[in-house]
Inverse folding.
């Protein structure tokens, strides 16, 4: 297990170094985020709290698709062969999922900051907002950590990854969205959202377990 952790950490540092040099993934995603927020600010002005939260989750879902797919498309056959010789498939999956998770948290932070500037700040309980975002980003990262690998084997990688992941994305966003929506209400308590937290945590565990089981076959194909 120590070997897997060491390899995962080394790969994660490698991914960050490569992203820091090229900035290809983040620059494209941040441009998308900025355009969406500016367009919706022009159309809606200061939207209702529910619309505000809906805009955020639309941004996050499409950002997750782009980040997941681009993280694999950048790996040519030669680089992938090098990774196969360098690390175990489980280490690659963990590093890739953590890399996507950190990028999604960064995108979420930037999106929330820009939305608070252009759309206002309707959140009354930030704890529920960041709890829902954290669990939602984790689930999306675990999901696209292995589904984007499937899509990278075909020409229509983004389309295939999105279609395969669609049912799980709906479940993730519905549960995480309900938690973040509670941040818009002053009377929300943890007891009222206990079921949603348990279901979202269980769904993340299921997705992570599925990824661990399947990634070895996907990566070696």
């Amino acid at each position: 297990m120590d070997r897997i952790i060491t390899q995962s950490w080394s790969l994660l540092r490698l991914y960050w170094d490569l992203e820091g040099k090229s900035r290809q993934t983040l620059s494209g995603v941040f441009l998308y985020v900025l355009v969406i927020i500016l367009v919706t600010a022009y159309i809606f002005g200061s939207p209702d709290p529910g619309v505000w939260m809906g805009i955020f989750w639309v941004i996050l879902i499409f950002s997750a698709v782009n980040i997941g797919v681009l993280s694999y498309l950048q790996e040519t056959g030669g680089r992938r062969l090098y990774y196969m010789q360098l690390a175990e498939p489980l280490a690659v999956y963990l590093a890739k999922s953590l890399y996507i998770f950190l990028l999604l948290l960064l995108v979420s932070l930037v999106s929330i900051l820009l939305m608070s500037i252009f759309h206002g700040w309707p959140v009354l309980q930030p704890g529920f907002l960041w709890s829902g975002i954290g669990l939602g980003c984790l689930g999306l990262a675990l999901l696209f950590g292995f589904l984007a690998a499937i899509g990278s084997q075909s020409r229509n990688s983004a389309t295939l990854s999105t279609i395969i992941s669609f049912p799980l994305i709906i479940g993730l966003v519905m549960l995480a969205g309900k938690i973040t929506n509670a941040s818009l209400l002053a009377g929300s308590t943890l007891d009222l959202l206990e079921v949603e937290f348990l279901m979202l945590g269980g769904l993340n565990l299921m997705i992570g377990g599925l990824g661990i089981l399947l990634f070895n076959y996907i990566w070696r194909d």
User: Anything to note?
Assistant: The helical segments are 2-22, 24-44, 49-73, 77-86, 89-118, 126-151, 157-182, 194-220.
